[in-house]
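[Help] Beginner question about ligand-bound structures

Sorry if this is basic. My supervisor gave me a protein sequence and a SMILES string for S-adenosylmethionine and asked me to "get the holo structure". I don't really know what that means in practice or what format the answer should be in. Inputs are pasted below exactly as I got them.
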Amino acid sequence: MSAFSSIWLDLRYPVDLKARSKELEDQYIDHLLAKVPIGSTVHIVDLGAGNGATLKAMAHRIPRDQLWTLIDNDASLLDDLIDKKRSLPRHGYALHLSPLQVDLSTCRLTTLFSGHDGITTSAFLDLVCLAWLGKLAQAIAELKLPFLASLTYNGFAECSPQDPLDAEIIDAVNRHQQQEKGLGLALGPAAAHETQKAFSSRGYSVETAESDWISEAGDQLFQKELLSGWAVAAKEYGVDAAEVNAWLARRQKLIDEGRSKIRVGHTDLLALPPES
Ligand SMILES: C[S@@+](CC[C@H](N)C(=O)[O-])C[C@H]1O[C@@H](n2cnc3c(N)ncnc32)[C@H](O)[C@@H]1O
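Answer (accepted):
No worries, everyone starts somewhere. Holo just means with the ligand present. The predicted complex, written as C-alpha cells, is below.
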C-alpha cells in the first residue's frame, strides 16, 4: 500500500479525528468567523488535502457558506475526495469544493493563497524541507492569513507491550522520515518545532497542542498497516531484514490477540497573524 493511498488515509481517519486538537480548530474557526462577515463565503485553502481529512473534520463546524480549495498533486486522491462529498456531515450552509492538482514544490504560493481567508493542512508539514517551510510561512504572513497545521509527526512512537527491537525500528523510521519526499529533504520529526519558529519570527502568535494517535487494541487493520510501513522503512534504513520480519510477526500476533496498543506523537499548531 502506498504511503498516501486512499485506503490508508481512510484507515487512519478515525484515529486522526480523535487526535486532532478541537481547541485549536475552534480558535481557528472563531478567527475566520470574526474576519468573514455573516452572509459571505469563507474561502479556505487546504494543502496536501489527500482525500479530504481536514475538510471532513471541520467543514460542518463552520457556520458560514464555504469554498474549499483542496490542493494535492495526486489526482486520484482528489477524485476520491469529490466522490465522498455526499457523505460529509450536513450543516445547513453551502459547501463548494474546488480540487486543484498542483505540485506544491513548484507553484507560487502567494498567488495560490491570494483572495482566501485561511490556510489549513494536516499530516503534511513533516514531508517538507526547511526552505519550503520558510516560503510557506512568508507567503501566509504576506497575506496576514491564519494557519492551522494538524497532525504533524513529531518523532515519538511507543508500542505496548514493548518488544526489544521497537527502539531500533522506531529510530530507523525517524531517519526514513527525513529523506526526500518531493519537497526537499523532509523535516520529519523537526517539522512542528521549525513551523513554530517560522511563524513566531514573522510576528504570528503560535499555539501548539499534542495530537498523538492513541491506537487501541480494536484498531487492528490500522495497526497492521502502520507497522508494515515501519517494517519497510526499517529494512531500507539498515535493520536486518530477518530481524524485522520476526519483529513484525511478533507484533502482528499481539494485534491478532487484541493486546496491542500504539501511540504515535503528533503536534497541532495554530498560527494567527498579528492584529493590524
Ligand atoms: C500524509 S498525506 C495527508 C493527507 C491529508 N491531509 C490527511 O490528513 O489525510 C500527505 C498528502 O500530501 C500530498 N503531497 C505530497 N507531496 C505533495 C506535493 N509536492 N504537492 C502537493 N501535494 C503533495 C500527498 O499526495 C498526500 O495526499
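A couple of things worth pointing out: The pocket of S-adenosylmethionine is lined by residues 4, 9, 48-50, 53-54, 72-74, 77, 103-105, 122-124, 127, 182-183 (CB under 6 Å). The chain has a mean pLDDT of 96. Feel free to follow up in the thread.
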